[in-house]
Amino acid sequence: MPNLSATATALITGASSGIGAVYAERLAARGHDLLLVARNRQRLEALAAGLMTKYGVNVEVLSADLGEPADLAQVEQRLRSDEAIGVLVNNAGIALHGTLADTKPEHIDALVALNIVAVTRLASAAAMRFSNTGRGTIINIASVVALAPEMFNAVYSASKAYVLSLSQTLHGELKDKGVQVQVVLPGVTRTEIFERSGLDVTQIDPQMVMEVGEMVDAALSGLDQKELVTIPSLPQAMDWQAYIKARDALGPNLSRSSAAARYK
Ligand code: NAP
């Protein structure tokens, strides 16, 4: 059962293409007004016009470079002050490829600014206001490389592990305050992210590539089922539960007054 309040406006970052644009379409279809954020105003306006005509919802466009502190502060302020906003889809992100040694410092900075700093600041702003009003939904887009860092670029994978960790802690902080947190871990999804980062998705085994509509529909189904962590392509939910169980088993021994016998 859908549990998003249909009256809430959804703020979607990175809505001008790929996963964010599909979230915009699906949430408009559910009756949400939208606030679409990305840098490319023209693309946002074209999407907004189509969604308003098709679904009769109100769609506002906010052109912002979330890697720029002044633009980020503007979006953050909007989240803190606009009481109509009840859903944050924290989606904008970029990828890198190649080894860490070969990565240019400015590319590292840009990825960290967008995938980590902006995501954290927006999640914090939403957490503050949603917990004050006692309702709201925060959807953070991570990646399966959060669980399989050896598969891909170090900075990108680490940024997505950060988003997973942030979301797990945030869920604990907000679950008794009427605020739902979901973190989505897509596998390879056919979007522009590959060409933008200099990769060719046609070089990836097609069995590993999901179409973006199917990915977002699965993520929204996970949201409706109140999942904290949604891995759209994972066939058996019990495999994730086993992973969490193994992690939890470490818990009592992660901080003790003496070192383990093998280190003495
Ligand atoms: P995409 O098609 O390249 O979309 C990225 C979106 O982020 C665009 O709307 C882009 O719009 C926006 N964006 C980029 N830089 C920005 C900036 N500085 N400020 C504001 N907006 C910015 O890629 P996507 O695959 O949909 O990616 C969406 C999210 O899914 C990302 O967080 C990505 O890491 C994650 N993800 C993707 C995959 C995959 O295989 N595609 C897998 C796992 C996770 P503008 O250029 O207009 O700003």
Brief synopsis:
The protein has helices spanning about 20-30, 40-55, 70-80, 105-135, 155-175, 195, 210-225, 235-250, and strands at about 10-15, 35-40, 60-65, 85-90, 135-140, 180-185, 230. With about 260 residues, it is an alpha/beta fold.
Describe this structure in words.
- This protein has 264 residues and is α/β, with parallel strands linked by helices.
- The protein has one domain (9-236): NAD(P)-binding Rossmann-like Domain (Rossmann fold).
- It has helices at residues 18-29, 41-55, 69-81, 105-133, 154-174, 193-196, 212-224, 237-250; strands at 9-13, 34-38, 59-63, 85-90, 136-141, 179-184, 229-230.
- The chain has a 7-stranded parallel beta sheet with strand order 3-2-1-4-5-6-7, with helices on both faces.
- The mean pLDDT is 96.
Question: Which outline best applies?
Answer: globular
Q: How large is the count of helical segments?
A: 8
Radius of gyration: 19 Å
If strands are numbered along the chain, what order do they take across the biggest sheet? 3-2-1-4-5-6-7
What's the total count of β strands? 7
Class of secondary structure makeup: alpha/beta
| CATH architectural designation | 3-Layer(aba) Sandwich
Low-confidence stretches: none
In terms of DSSP E residues, the strand content is 5-15%
